[in-house]
TrEMBL record:
Keyword rRNA-binding assigned: no
A GO cellular component entry from the record: membrane protein complex
Domain of life: Bacteria
Matching InterPro entries: AAA+_ATPase (IPR003593), ABC_transporter-like_ATP-bd (IPR003439), MacB-like_ATP-bd (IPR017911), P-loop_NTPase (IPR027417)
Gene Ontology molecular functions: ATP binding; ATP hydrolysis activity; transmembrane transporter activity
Higher taxonomy: Bacteria, Bacillati, Bacillota, Clostridia, Peptostreptococcales
Organism: Lentihominibacter hominis
ABC transporter domain span: 2-241
UniProt similarity note: Belongs to the ABC transporter superfamily.
Record keywords: ATP-binding, Nucleotide-binding, Transport
Record protein name field: ABC transporter ATP-binding protein
Length: 251
């Protein structure tokens, strides 16, 4: 569904070149829920921005649904961004002047899809995420949890290849964090969604099928959830503790 091969990305400052991602290769399969973790500055957001087609990269190949995105024109990239990717941001970015229903419909309004089809799809997703009763309300009139579920419903509107989530549980209390994760699990289990999430939160990541750990712009480790969520969380915490330098790798 998403395939990154030998991705290299550097930032330039005057004559100085700072490599940020070096030879990153990864694959996310259909219906997988994958997190990217790693210390601050390890390149997580840069990786997500390359996959989102928001920033150019130096070399490598990114494939979405089998299609190489660097081959696309600017117009083609915009279409991919709107129709083949779903985005979830830290503050959910709902438009205040639109109702919940209009916010959910937005990707299809931009894609100029027929209204009847759009409304049917929005109603189905709002029902799936338990927000049918607030469809006519505005973001200012709904709770944080309802905003999160609205954003997840919106991200699924065009049946995207992948939902890209950037720190979706950052700044949330544990109850709201669990609500976001539950919405992702529901999207995965009931709508077959593929989710790729950047996070610092080991609790959120422990619900994933797999966690890719970045260090200094390289893939340091990939951890697959094998047993209980709690055991996976302990494994993640331990891996990140070692990366953070708290204990020796060979200990
Ligand atoms: N636009 C930019 N221009 C120059 N350098 C940048 C730019 N954006 C990020 N960087 C640098 O690239 C490196 C990776 O940044 P990135 O934001 O991808 O890391 P991150 O792992 O997401 O960090 P954090 O966990 O703190 O959000 C950092 O050293 C950062 O300073």
């Amino acid at each position: 569904m998403l395939q990154v091969e030998n991705l290299n990305k550097s930032y330039k400052n005057g004559f100085n070149i700072y490599p940020v991602l070096t030879d990153v290769s990864l694959k996310v399969n259909q219906g997988e829920f994958v997190a990217v973790m790693g210390p601050s500055g390890s390149g997580k957001t840069t990786l997500l921005n390359c996959i989102s087609c928001f920033i150019p990269y130096d070399s490598g190949t990114i494939r979405l649904g089998g299609r190489v995105i660097s081959d696309l024109s600017e117009k083609g990239l915009s279409k991919v961004r709107n129709e083949k990717l779903g985005f979830i941001f830290q503050d959910f970015m709902l438009l205040d002047g639109l109702t919940v229903k209009e916010n959910v419909c937005l990707p299809q309004i931009i894609a100029k899809k027929p209204i009847v089809e759009m409304e049917e799809k929005a109603s189905m997703l709002c029902s799936l995420f338990g927000i049918s009763q607030i469809m006519e309300k505005y973001p200012a009139e709904i709770s944080g949890g309802e905003k999160q579920r609205t954003a997840v419903a919106r991200s699924l509107m065009n049946d995207p290849y992948v939902i890209l989530a950037d720190e979706p549980t950052g700044n949330l209390d544990s109850k709201s964090c669990k609500a976001v994760i539950d919405a992702f699990l529901q999207a995965k289990n009931q709508a077959g969604a593929t989710i790729f999430m950047v996070t610092h939160d080991s609790y959120a990541a422990s619900f994933c099928d797999r966690v890719i750990v970045l260090k200094d712009g390289c893939i340091h480790q990939e951890l697959t959830r094998a047993s209980t969520r709690r055991a996976f969380m302990d494994e993640l915490l331990n891996t990140l503790r070692i990366l953070g330098g708290d204990i020796d790798d060979n200990e």
